[in-house]
Write a structure and sequence with these properties.
Length: about 220
């Protein structure tokens, strides 16, 4: 039975924490099982349910996870390029030596053609022709069970990282406009340049940082 690979991301917008990309590889029988037990877009699930489903997904399918760390984000010239590389990384991990035929990607890019052109520009030439037959679309995590599974894996691993950060620091959700997150960032901004170099959890090139910097003069 042929295997399908799906990939999705999470934690793209926050100012604190990694952007996480996850892939899941499974056959049609397993995908039907995932649908029966309620696998769907992670945003539609409560935390406890997500973690229960993560154990089922990991038990019945192969998974791959890639973290784009805040420091990588701070240093990169183009986040979309970095994320496209992460997508291809998890797809390559799950496909091994074989060129995957059936792939579902929750597209962060403008459209499918733009995503494929980005792949070509980044040097993934062996995948470009195959990608014409892939499903690369917005809201794929809502429309395809396996992509929902990938969103669950990504979200759970992101939650694990953020739980770790909250045990060490009072970072809140990491989202822009979260008062706790803003307080955490402002504390580091007041200690520049040491904290800018030392705090690896903040995305220093985010517009939120500039707004908060201006707020404290």
């Amino acid at each position: 039975m042929s295997v399908i690979i799906a990939a999705d991301d999470t934690h793209r917008c926050p100012t604190v924490g990694s952007l996480v990309v996850a892939g899941v590889a499974a056959d049609e029988k397993t995908i039907k099982y995932f649908k029966r037990i309620g696998v769907k877009d992670s945003k539609l699930l409560e935390r406890n349910r997500r973690f229960y489903l993560l154990t089922e997904i990991a038990k019945h399918a192969r998974i791959a996870v890639k973290f784009i760390t805040p420091m990588q984000i701070s240093r990169c010239e183009n986040l979309n390029d970095e994320e496209a590389k992460a997508y291809m990384d998890v797809i390559e991990q799950l496909s091994g030596q074989q060129l995957p035929v059936k792939v579902i990607i929750d597209n962060f890019d403008r459209n499918k053609a733009k995503f494929i052109e980005r792949m070509r520009r980044l040097g993934f030439h062996s995948y470009v022709n195959a990608a014409e037959g892939w499903t690369i679309e917005h809201d794929a995590d809502k429309n395809y069970t396996l992509c929902g599974a990938a969103s669950i894996v990504a979200k759970c691993f992101s939650d694990i990282e953020m739980d770790y950060l909250r045990r060490k620091y009072d970072v809140g959700s990491g989202n822009p406009n979260d008062p706790k997150t803003e307080k955490f960032i402002i504390k580091h901004l007041k200690c520049e340049p040491k904290c800018m170099k030392g705090c690896q959890w903040i995305r220093w090139n985010w517009r939120t940082i500039e707004r908060l910097r201006n707020s404290i003069g």
